[in-house]
Design brief:
Blueprint: E1 4-5, E2 11-16, H1 30-49, E3 52-63, E4 71-82, E5 86-97, E6 103-116, E7 128-129, H2 133-160
Parallel strand pairs: 1-7
Antiparallel strand pairs: 2-4, 3-6, 4-5, 5-6
């Protein structure tokens, strides 16, 4: 299977922040942002694998600054690293004040997706070729994040044995 460049999975989506998108602090509601993050990341995963994909985990979301109704929100996502059937997808969220043009990184997120074959079983995915400095940094630091994901998942499974469904 041929490797693919990060740019081949890149997704850009810009939207406005409307009054029904904000919380009681009059800033973008975190749940709304998470929904948009998952949507754009899922497109990146599908573009990279050209398969049906499922979200395996939302590994991290860091809210760095508030997003206001005077802002637009640009989501940029791409696959940064792959395992056998899994893909790490990075999402950068850029807020832009539409009145003055100031742009800032409002949040970042990392998610893991798994590609599925026609039988809904994990399917092999191409490796990733980073080109930009940002892509190279994310790619070179990905194995450590993959290790942490694996450890966290094991701990979650262990904790789940103590949880009830009552």
């Amino acid at each position: 299977m041929e490797a693919k460049f990060c740019r081949e999975s890149r997704v850009l989506r810009t939207s406005r922040v409307f009054p029904n998108d904000v919380n009681n602090h009059n800033t973008l509601f975190g749940g709304r942002l998470l929904s948009d993050v998952d949507q754009v990341a899922s497109i990146s995963a599908a573009r990279h694998s050209r398969r049906e994909c499922v979200t395996a985990s939302t590994d991290s979301v860091d809210f760095l600054c508030p997003i206001h109704t005077s802002d637009s929100v640009c989501f940029e996502s791409y696959v940064t690293w792959t395992g056998t059937s899994s893909m790490e997808v990075f999402v950068k969220i850029i807020a832009e004040n539409l009145k003055c043009g100031e742009r800032r990184i409002a949040a970042t997120a990392l998610l893991t997706f798994v590609a599925l074959d026609q039988n809904k079983r994990p399917a092999h995915v191409p490796q990733v070729i980073p080109e930009t400095e940002e892509e190279k940094k994310l790619h070179e630091t990905a194995p450590e994040r993959a290790k942490m994901r694996k450890e966290r998942k094991q701990k979650s499974k262990e904790l789940a044995t103590f949880l009830t469904t009552n």
